[in-house]
């Protein structure tokens, strides 16, 4: 699984837009015409087009730059403000007389009633092309990888595409493209494209009916656009890759599909993200499939985080043990998100030096009180102060790994203090669990948790007795 040891720097070039929503309800028909009257209650705006790729990259943990062309209008100012607020570094070229894209949707009871667009769809001017390329030349060394998000609104012209791809190759920078239109020669020399099945059929003029036709389409697209690799996204069937004349298919496993809006943007973002961290192409595809599996389970154009992908992997029984060992900062963010999802958090802590049946029974009982069990684990130094110089028998990494192998333990956080009070303050659990030997004693953190529960240990089971038995005492 991907761990974010460094922040990748990714540059997005493409068509930016604002998705604007007017939310309301409808109780009557207009007397002026046979149309619904919508009583607007709320108005929202989100980044759309290439902006959804940017949102996904930011939520995954990237540093993101964006180059695009906008008009000299109020929508452009709004768009720039949104990019700044999200934390993207924007390099926007203003073109006089051009309309910045804004798509407005009137929604009633979560159903779209009508959409109206304010935008220019013609190709950007030669002067704007020149300014984009000059800016790209200036910025190229700052970024690990370049993503084209082409929505067919005129920013990525054929000449500009060729110039950027050729120049990127001189610096050994990969260009990945979410394509638009029928002529993929426009992206000649790209690392690969990410068309969906319908787009691939149109561009390759091959009807993808079976595996043989799928391979034919992949080969044709690779030839048309002189690609390093050829890829086709296949919705719930996953992603197909042509590598060394062999088709590799990695399926997507979605628990439940609510909305496929923006899934293509998530695939582009997650592929670029994984590759920029040094993953090979097959690993990147597997990561992108997981990301897509998360976003199709959400409503509307959605983003995905590394933690959501890991939780999703857990639900598919594919999760890596190490990823569930968290820092204080990480567990605070996870706890906040779990609360937003109305999950009941259970917290317990201890040394758990030599794991035995008593520990497992105790932890299983603790997990039964809620949805997620977070375990605070005493560090080696902390155990020495509590138990003496000869303890622990097993070091903190070994103890954490073994605990995380238990199905009932969701996250482990190692703490160095004598008590886990600081950690409990960050987690703010619903349920705090300790052993029944604390009956009548003060339980650290009970003033923070909503409820404290004491659990009986199994008689005759303890780490001390296990050690004595090993020593023949």
From TrEMBL:
<dbReference type="InterPro" id="IPR004821">
    <property type="entry name" value="Cyt_trans-like"/>
</dbReference>
<keyword id="KW-0067">ATP-binding</keyword>
<comment type="pathway">
    <text>Nucleotide-sugar biosynthesis; ADP-L-glycero-beta-D-manno-heptose biosynthesis; ADP-L-glycero-beta-D-manno-heptose from D-glycero-beta-D-manno-heptose 7-phosphate: step 1/4.</text>
</comment>
<dbReference type="InterPro" id="IPR014729">
    <property type="entry name" value="Rossmann-like_a/b/a_fold"/>
</dbReference>
<dbReference type="InterPro" id="IPR011914">
    <property type="entry name" value="RfaE_dom_II"/>
</dbReference>
<feature type="domain" description="Cytidyltransferase-like">
    <location>
        <begin position="347"/>
        <end position="439"/>
    </location>
</feature>
<dbReference type="GO" id="GO:0097171">
    <property type="term" value="P:ADP-L-glycero-beta-D-manno-heptose biosynthetic process"/>
</dbReference>
<keyword id="KW-0511">Multifunctional enzyme</keyword>
<keyword id="KW-0418">Kinase</keyword>
<feature type="region of interest" description="Ribokinase">
    <location>
        <begin position="1"/>
        <end position="319"/>
    </location>
</feature>
<dbReference type="InterPro" id="IPR029056">
    <property type="entry name" value="Ribokinase-like"/>
</dbReference>
<dbReference type="Pfam" id="PF00294">
    <property type="entry name" value="PfkB"/>
</dbReference>
<protein>
    <recommendedName>
        <fullName>Bifunctional protein HldE</fullName>
        <ecNumber>2.7.1.167</ecNumber>
        <ecNumber>2.7.7.70</ecNumber>
    </recommendedName>
</protein>
<keyword id="KW-0547">Nucleotide-binding</keyword>
<dbReference type="GO" id="GO:0005829">
    <property type="term" value="C:cytosol"/>
</dbReference>
<feature type="region of interest" description="Cytidylyltransferase">
    <location>
        <begin position="347"/>
        <end position="473"/>
    </location>
</feature>
<feature type="active site">
    <location>
        <position position="265"/>
    </location>
</feature>
<dbReference type="GO" id="GO:0005524">
    <property type="term" value="F:ATP binding"/>
</dbReference>
<dbReference type="InterPro" id="IPR023030">
    <property type="entry name" value="Bifunc_HldE"/>
</dbReference>
<dbReference type="Pfam" id="PF01467">
    <property type="entry name" value="CTP_transf_like"/>
</dbReference>
<comment type="function">
    <text>Catalyzes the ADP transfer from ATP to D-glycero-beta-D-manno-heptose 1-phosphate, yielding ADP-D-glycero-beta-D-manno-heptose.</text>
</comment>
<comment type="similarity">
    <text>In the N-terminal section; belongs to the carbohydrate kinase PfkB family.</text>
</comment>
<keyword id="KW-0808">Transferase</keyword>
<dbReference type="GO" id="GO:0033786">
    <property type="term" value="F:heptose-1-phosphate adenylyltransferase activity"/>
</dbReference>
<feature type="domain" description="Carbohydrate kinase PfkB">
    <location>
        <begin position="9"/>
        <end position="303"/>
    </location>
</feature>
<comment type="subunit">
    <text>Homodimer.</text>
</comment>
<dbReference type="InterPro" id="IPR011611">
    <property type="entry name" value="PfkB_dom"/>
</dbReference>
<comment type="pathway">
    <text>Nucleotide-sugar biosynthesis; ADP-L-glycero-beta-D-manno-heptose biosynthesis; ADP-L-glycero-beta-D-manno-heptose from D-glycero-beta-D-manno-heptose 7-phosphate: step 3/4.</text>
</comment>
<dbReference type="InterPro" id="IPR011913">
    <property type="entry name" value="RfaE_dom_I"/>
</dbReference>
<dbReference type="GO" id="GO:0033785">
    <property type="term" value="F:heptose 7-phosphate kinase activity"/>
</dbReference>
<comment type="similarity">
    <text>In the C-terminal section; belongs to the cytidylyltransferase family.</text>
</comment>
<keyword id="KW-0548">Nucleotidyltransferase</keyword>
<keyword id="KW-0119">Carbohydrate metabolism</keyword>
<feature type="binding site">
    <location>
        <begin position="196"/>
        <end position="199"/>
    </location>
    <ligand>
        <name>ATP</name>
    </ligand>
</feature>
<dbReference type="GO" id="GO:0016773">
    <property type="term" value="F:phosphotransferase activity, alcohol group as acceptor"/>
</dbReference>
